[in-house]
Amino acid sequence: MLAGAASRLSTALSGWRDLPSSTKDSLLAATLTVLAFAPTVAHIGPEIGDLPQRETSGIDAVIAVALTLAMCLPLAVRTRMPAACLSVIGTAFAIGQMLGYPDTFGKVGILLALYAAGAHLTRFRRALAATLTAGYAALAVVLHNLGSPQRFPDFLAFYFVLVVIWLAGTGMRRWRAEEAERRRLAAEVAAATERARIARDLHDVVTHHVTAMVVQADAAQFLLDSAPDRTGTGLRAISDTGRRALTELRTLLGILEATGDSKTADRAPALGKVADLVEQARLAGQPVEWTEQGDRQPRSVDVELATYRVVQEALTNALKHATGNPTQVRIRHGKDHIEVEVITIGPTAGDTATPSGGRGLTGLRERVRMLGGDLVSGGLPDDDGFRVWAMIPGSPA
């Protein structure tokens, strides 16, 4: 029973939070208006004058009702027009104190309006605070002259209560502003992270495929002179590489469209397509040996894509810096991780087929570390080659 009641209360609170501010203000004003005419809670509310209560009959009864409504109904605009709301309610409260009308729960409206002004007022805050302070001081003098039993410490204590309520609203206003700023900064960081990720993907796609096409074009030109009958194979390899590049670029453009209904993850390079990278490198003239150890298991898209990019970048570097050198690609499937190792045997070339921007391995290292893994790259002893090793955590999906 208690669990059901808690669930219903949570649902009701969630529904209340989702309501527009104007609707919540209107409901608050209506609720306070109803309670203001309930005798049971009439004595609950702020009181500072303590003047003898007058009998309300005839015109006095009409004035009492009007003052009560003036202390409740303006709350309907407390968020949109906090200064006007507080001014009307404060004036009605002061008149009620000076005329000694009977107690009413509607006097709570002055506290709600004061909090709303502190929380929602954006302009002329100091001017309004100074005006309210002067008005309260004038009210204290009038009440004293009318015979109020309150003394200076009592008026001062009541004033401090009002100040605390104002400051509570101010604190809420600052908290909301800080929260909005945090959300804005978080959105900017998320956008920057996404831009960096797409930039890395663009780098990987363009660099790898263009490098392969350049190497294949050079090989086709060589075959044109030495073995014309094999030129068609080289040209088909260039064509296939271009189509792969276009496919991956379309995938990235689909992500950039950000329609919210993108299914590009299904078309993203995955672990099963590493064989295509190996075959593409072989067609470009790079002797590649590929071994796979352990049982392949379905992983998350991020893990499989990172594995693909590690192999892609390593083969790209091999094509650029060590064209024709033997290259070994090893993938080991662990229970909760994938280990990738790409080794290119032999010295690197001084001049490369294509210029290098130097961002490939750096961006790849960031990608792997974001998944909790590590990537190490460097030359082999005696300048006998280059090694790229990565460990990418990822439990089976």
Q: What's the pLDDT, averaged over the residues?
A: 79
Going by helix content, strand content and strand pairing, the class is alpha+beta
Biggest sheet statistics:
5 strands, mixed
Q: How much strand?
A: 5-15%
Helix share bin: 55-70%
Low-pLDDT sequence parts: 259-267, 351-358
Question: Based on CA inertia axes, which overall geometry fits?
Answer: rod-shaped
Radius of gyration: 38 Å
**Strand segment tally:** 5
What report would you give on this structure?
By secondary structure, this protein is of the alpha+beta class. The protein contains eleven helices and five strands; from the N terminus they run H-H-H-H-H-H-H-H-H-E-H-E-E-H-E-E. A five-stranded mixed β-sheet has the order 1-2-3-5-4, with helices on one face. A hairpin with a 3-residue loop joins strand 2 and strand 3 (about 335-345). Helix 4 packs parallel to helix 6 and helix 7 (about 150-225) runs antiparallel to helix 8 (about 230-255). The two termini are about 40 Å apart.
Could you give the topology of this structure?
Layout: H1 2-18, H2 21-36, H3 59-70, H4 82-99, H5 108-120, H6 125-145, H7 152-226, H8 231-257, H9 274-283, E1 288-293, H10 301-321, E2 327-333, E3 337-345, H11 360-370, E4 374-379, E5 385-393
Parallel strand pairs: 1-2
Antiparallel strand pairs: 2-3, 3-5, 4-5
Keywords:
61% helix, 9% strand
